[in-house]
Amino acid sequence: MSVAEQTGPAEEYLEEHEPARVRIVLIAVATTLLFASLGQTIVTTAMPIMVADLGGLDHITWVITAYLLASTIGAPIAGKLGDLYGRKIVIQVGIGVFMVGAVIGGLAQNMGMLVAGRAVQGFGGGGLIVVSMAVVADVLPARERGKAQGLMGAMFGISTVIGPLIGGFLVQALSWHWIFFVNLPVGVLALIVLGVALDNPTKGIRHPIDYAGAVLLSVILASAVLVSNMGGTVYGWGSPQILALIALGLGAVAGFVIAERRAAEPILPPKLFTINTFLVVNGVGFMVGMAMFGTITFLPLFLQVVKGLSPATSGMFLTPMMAGLLGASMGAGLIMSRTGRYKLLPILSTALLTVSMLGMSTLAADTPLWLIATMMVGVGLGLGPVFSIGVAAIQNAVPVTMLGVGTASANMFRLIGGSIGTAAFGAIFSAGLARNLGGLLPDGAGLRSMSAETVAALDPEAQVQVMDGISNAMHPIFLIAATVGAIAFLLSFLLKELPLSNSLPGRPVTARG
Q1: Mean of the per-residue pLDDT values for the chain?
Q2: pLDDT band at residue 311 using 50, 70 and 90 as cut-offs
Q3: Name one Pfam family in it (predicted).
C-alpha cells in the first residue's frame, strides 16, 4: 500500500504540496544566507569615510578582521547547536545576534565600538551561513541537494559583487551608519518568514554542551586568524606576540583533542576525521580558499596602480570571477542532482583553476583588460563547483546527527585558508616590492606607500620600472596560487564518490505548511 493510501485527505494534501513548502524554506534560508554574507562586504566602500568620522586609522583593518574572526568561530558552534536543538532556534538567535551587532556598529562613536559591533555581527553571521546551508540537508534528499547548494554558493558570489555597491549607495545617499541600520528591517522580515517556514523537530530535548571544546576551538581559530593577519605586518614573525599566539594555538590543539575524546557531545566530533569525504573536501576547500582570497586581494591593486583604473572600475573586474563562480556553482549542482555523480566535477574545476592562476602569473603592464577578464572567468569557473559540490558531498557522507557541524566545517576550512593565504601572499608581495622597487619610490617600497598617485608623480622612465616591478612582485603570488590549485586537483582524486540517496535523512522534515 502506498503512503498516500495509508493516509487521510489532510496528509494527501500535505504530500501533494510538499514541493511548494520546500521552495519557501529554500528561498527563506537563501535570503538569510545572502543577508549574512552581505555583512562582510557591505562595509568595504565605507571604510575611508568611517575613519574620517571616527578616527582610529591604525585599527581600520579590524573592521574586516573582527567580522572574519568572529564568523570563523561562530560557524562550528552554531552548526553543532543546530544538530542538538534544531536549525530554527539557532537561525533565529543568529539573526538576533547579527541585528544587535548592527545596532552597536550603527551607533558607534569611536573605532573600538565599531569593531565590537562588527565582532558581534560576525559571530551571528557565521552561524547563519552554515545553519542555512544545513537546512538544505533537512528538507531535501542527497540526490537533490546539489541544485540547492549551488544556489547557496551563488549567494556568496552575489554578495561579493553587490555588497560594495549597496554600501557605496547608502554612504552617498544617507550616511555610513545606514550600512548597519538597513539590516534591521531585513532581519525582522527574515525572523517572521523563518518563523513560519521552519519547525524545530528537537524542541524540548536537553543535551550536554561541550563548553571546553567550544572554548578551545575558539582559541585555535582565533590564533590561526590573528597570526595570519598580524604576522609580518603588525608584528614581526619572530616577535614575542606572534610566538605567544602560535604557542597558545598549539596548546589549544592538544587540549582540544583531549576534550573532544572525552565529551559526550563533542563540538567537532573526532569521528568526522575518519571520513574520507570530510577530509578530502575540506582539504580542497582550504587550498581553494587560499587561491580565491589571494586573487580578490591583489588583483584590484594591480589594476589601479599598473593599469590606471579607478577603484570602482577595478572592483568591477571581480564581477567576471563571480559570474563564473555563480554559473559553475549552480551548473555543478544541477549535474550532481541529475546524474547522481560528482567526483569528476571538483577534479575538472580545480584543473581549470590551476590553469587560470598560471595565466594570471603572466600579468604585465601591457596585458589586455579583456584577457584579464577572461582569466577571471576561468578562476570563477574553477571555484564554483568546489563550493556547491563540497558541501553537498559532506552532507551526504556524515551521520545525520552531524549535518550541522559537517556543513560548518566546509566554511571554516575555506575561511582559514583564505586568511592564511592572504597573509602569506601579502608577505611575499611586500618582499618582492622591496626587492624590485628599492629606491624608486620616494617613501620606499611597500604596500602602504603604493598608490596610482604615487606612480603618476614619477618620471616616465621610473613609472615603467615601477609597473614592471609591481607586476613581477605579483607573479610569485599567482604561481603559488597555481601550485595550491594543483594540490587541490590531486587531492580531488582521493575523494570516494558515495551513492546519493533519494530519500530524506532519518529525521523529521523541518518544513511545515
Answers
A1: 76
A2: low
A3: MFS_1
Q: CB 103: neighbour CB atoms within 10 A?
A: 16
Residues whose CB falls within 8 Å of the CB of residue 417, separated by 6 or more in sequence, listed in order: 285, 286, 287, 288, 289, 290, 293
Could you give the number of structural domains in the chain? 2
Residues 315 and 290 in one domain: yes
Q: 243: which 3 cell numbers?
A: 610566538
CA distances to 91, 194, 207 from 85, in Å? 11, 16, 8
Query: Which residues, including other chains, have CB under 8 Å from residue 254's CB and lie 6 or more apart?
Result: none
Q: Which domain holds residue 238?
A: 208-264
Q: Is 231 helix (H, G, I), strand (E, B) or coil?
A: strand
d(CA 446, CA 301): 12
Which of 151-165, 290-304, 431-445 is predicted with the least confidence, judged by mean pLDDT? Answer: 431-445
The Cα-based distances of 66 to 8, 39, 72, 126, 169 in angstroms read: 54, 12, 10, 12, 24
Confidence (pTM): 0.74
258 and 142 in one domain?
no
Start-to-end CA distance of the chain, whole Å, equals 25
Based on the fold, state whether residues 250 and 185 are members of the same structural domain: no
Identify whether residues 258 and 380 lie together within a single domain: no
pLDDT grade for 458, boundaries at 50, 70 and 90 = low
The answer to whether residue 500 sits within a structural domain is no
User: Positive or negative CA dihedral for 356, 71, 427, 454?
Assistant: positive
